[in-house]
Design a protein that fits this description.
Number of domains: 2
Number of strands: 7
CATH superfamily of the largest domain: K homology (KH) domain
CATH topology of the largest domain: GMP Synthetase, Chain A, domain 3
CATH class of the largest domain: Alpha Beta
Order of helices and strands: EEEEEHEEHH
Radius of gyration: 19 Å
Structural class: alpha+beta
Mean pLDDT: 93
Largest sheet: 3 strands, antiparallel
Length: about 160
C-alpha cells in the first residue's frame, strides 16, 4: 500500500492457483507457495483427508469476512475481543454425479453467522455490518458473480 497525504491507493492483486488430481479422490491446490489438499468423504469414495471443494469455498468465505472485520476494527481503533464466522448451506450432489435434479449444481444458498465481541458502540454496529459485507471480496463475488472465462486445452 502506498499512502499519500490525501489518498491511499492499493495495487490490484492477481490471484493464481494450480489444481491437479492427487491420489484416489484427493485434489491438490497450490498458490503462492502454499498447498491445500481437498478430498471427498469416504461415502463418496474419498479418503476424507481434507475438505471438499464446496467446503473450502465456505471456509474461504468465512475467512474473508474474518480478515476484513479485523482490518476494519484496526482502522477504527476498536479492540476486537472475539470473532467467529460460521458459513453453511445445502448442496445437492445429483448433477455432479450425472443424475437429473431440479436443484442447482452448487449451493442453493449460503447462511453466514458472524459473532463479534468488540468495543464498538452500539450506534455504529449496523453501519459496520453493512460495510463489512460490502468490503468482503468473496461476499461480493458470490452475490455478484464474476464472469467465467473457461478455456480448454487438450493433449492429443
Amino acid at each position: 500500500m502506498q499512502e499519500d497525504s490525501q489518498e491511499m491507493t492499493v495495487e490490484v492483486i492477481q490471484v493464481e492457483t494450480l489444481v491437479r488430481p492427487g491420489e484416489n479422490r484427493r485434489i491438490i491446490a497450490q498458490g503462492r507457495g502454499h498447498e491445500i489438499v481437498m478430498d471427498m468423504k469416504k461415502e463418496m469414495m474419498g479418503d476424507d483427508s481434507g475438505p471438499t471443494p464446496p467446503e473450502l469455498l465456505a471456509m474461504a468465505l468465512g475467512g474473508c469476512m474474518v480478515n476484513i472485520a479485523r482490518i476494519m476494527m484496526e482502522q477504527k481503533g476498536v479492540k476486537l475481543n472475539g470473532l467467529q464466522v460460521g458459513v453453511s448451506g445445502p448442496i445437492d450432489p445429483s448433477k455432479a454425479m450425472g443424475l437429473e435434479s431440479s436443484n442447482p449444481t452448487g449451493f442453493v444458498g449460503l447462511a453466514i453467522h458472524v459473532k463479534l465481541d468488540a468495543d464498538l458502540p452500539e450506534v455504529e454496529r449496523q453501519s459496520f455490518e453493512q460495510e463489512l459485507c460490502k468490503r468482503c471480496a468473496l461476499c461480493d463475488t458470490i452475490a455478484n458473480p464474476a464472469p467465467l472465462d473457461i478455456q480448454f486445452g487438450w493433449n492429443s
